[in-house]
Specification:
464 residues; mainly beta; five-stranded antiparallel beta sheet; four-stranded antiparallel beta sheet
Length: 464
């Protein structure tokens, strides 16, 4: 009887152990030059810091598959890595936009290198605007010109990345603030709408894909907003005790394959949940038709010690099906930071039996209530196994999207695209690991995923 019990226990343990992802393999790397312009020639004039207003950069802040080997990529708030005015955290009047990219993924005919070659090309650039008037900072007290773009007219009020473009009498989720910091993007199933989440509000907006016009605002609960706003990030952090941490708002966005639900995820815990020292961030589930929200907790890994906990951040969430998702959890180390990448992992989570936590506040009260997570892909390990040094792995691997299936050795595989945010720095200065300047393009890493590793995968039902 004891022997039988031991056998059953072994079988149970074996059944629940996470399967090794031996078939998640790097198959291609592609890039777009970080020193060229996008297709918005009307924004080419230099910004406040001297950088061209249509520099093609930051594409991996958010990445969404749009069908037929086409992707939507979004830069964040613009080229603020160039210091010029700390009173606005070096942000500029960069007009927010999305880029339409076509990729060519074909088998590599050479006997060396990765099994596929990836050639991305820029197809179009679409600027984001509102028909309604937006609030722009005057810039006077900061020694800057007005924050309103010169392209504005009666019908088009453009969103920008400048941090002082907010109404100080309103909370940060006020929808008519002009400041916008896009971080997550998804496409509607009919292909006509673009959903974008941001860090400033945090906001989630719906845009017309053809025109870039904002069509709808998804209202988040006030708990996500801060009430004391500032163009300086550190000031905004210290001036609030609740709401999102400055520049760490709604970082990731998913859409379920049936096209009915958006899933947003914060980059760091809310201030009332511990802020950057907290272990639990919030996932927000939004019914697209009604706007009704639900919340779940996601537990970050501790990459410090028990005595001195340290947590990474989350950059993206991607739907496997209507209940399971991939989450990109990472450090900020690697190329662009002058350091070696150490922690960049993609986890698989399931909301099926997760506890709803919208009425629960505080890190201590979220203990034991987080969604289950299992490691799906260690990106640093996968890239170093292919000869890429830790110091050459982009620090900000933020965009995540499934693409077209491919066939390898007569077996169909899913493709997973990971893109970087290069901070609009097409060239990086020498650092500890690089004795000369190095190129820093917009990069795309493609992984092949066997169906046995994602047996429940359901592709989004995109029109066409």
């Amino acid at each position: 009887m004891l022997k039988k019990s031991l056998i059953l226990s072994f079988l149970v343990l074996f059944a629940i152990a996470p399967a090794a992802n031996a078939e998640v393999k790097l198959i291609a790397i592609g890039s777009l030059d970080g020193k060229i312009s996008d297709h918005s020639t009307e924004t080419s004039a230099p910004l406040e810091n001297g950088v061209a207003g249509n520099l093609l950069g930051g594409l991996g802040s958010g990445l969404a598959y749009a069908g037929n080997n086409t992707f939507i990529a979004i830069p964040d708030r613009g080229p603020n890595a160039v210091p010029y005015n700390s009173a606005v955290s070096d942000t500029v009047s960069y007009i927010n936009r999305f880029q339409t990219i076509k990729v060519k993924l074909v088998p590599n005919k050479l006997d060396t290198g990765l099994p596929f070659t990836l050639t991305p090309s820029l197809i179009d650039t679409t600027l984001l605007f509102s028909n309604e008037p937006l609030y722009y900072g005057s810039g006077g007290e900061l020694g800057l010109p007005n924050g309103a773009p010169a392209l504005n007219n009666n019908n088009k009020n453009y969103f920008t990345g400048r941090s002082d473009n907010f109404n100080p009498t309103q909370i940060s989720t006020y929808p008519n603030n002009a400041r916008f910091d896009p971080e997550g993007v998804r496409v509607s199933n009919n292909g006509e709408k673009i959903f974008i989440s941001d860090e400033y509000g945090p906001y989630i907006y719906q845009f017309n894909r053809n025109t870039g016009k904002r069509m709808r605002v998804f209202n988040l609960p006030n708990k996500f907003a801060v009430s004391n706003l500032s163009p300086v990030s550190d000031t905004e952090i210290t001036g609030n005790t609740s709401g999102r941490v400055a520049n760490k708002g709604m970082e990731g966005l998913a859409i379920t394959p049936n096209g009915k639900t958006l899933i947003g995820i914060l980059q760091s815990p809310l201030l009332q949940d511990g802020g950057t020292n907290g272990a639990y961030i919030r996932i927000v589930k939004i019914d697209i038709e009604t706007g009704v929200t639900q919340e779940y907790a996601y537990q970050l890994d501790n990459i410090g010690t028990a005595a001195k906990p340290k947590y990474p951040t989350v950059s993206e969430i991607l739907a496997i099906n209507d209940r399971e998702f991939l989450v990109d959890e990472r450090d900020g180390k690697g190329l662009g930071d002058g350091s070696k990448a150490a922690f960049k992992k993609i986890y698989r989570i399931d909301l099926t039996n997760a506890q709803e936590v919208s009425n629960i506040t505080g890190e201590r009260n979220l203990v034991g209530k987080a969604v289950s997570k299992n490691l799906f892909l260690d990106v640093v390990v996968a890239l170093t196994q292919n000869g890429i040094k830790e110091e050459d792995i982009p620090a900000k691997l933020e965009g995540l999207a499934f693409g077209e299936d491919v066939v390898i050795n007569r077996v169909k595989k899913h493709t997973l695209f990971i893109a970087n945010d290069n901070d609009f720095l097409g060239t990086l200065a020498p650092d500890t690991y690089h004795s000369i300047s190095v190129d820093n393009p917009n990069k795309f890493f493609v992984f092949a995923v066997d169906s046995t590793d994602l047996p429940s995968f359901v592709p989004q039902k995109l029109k066409g």
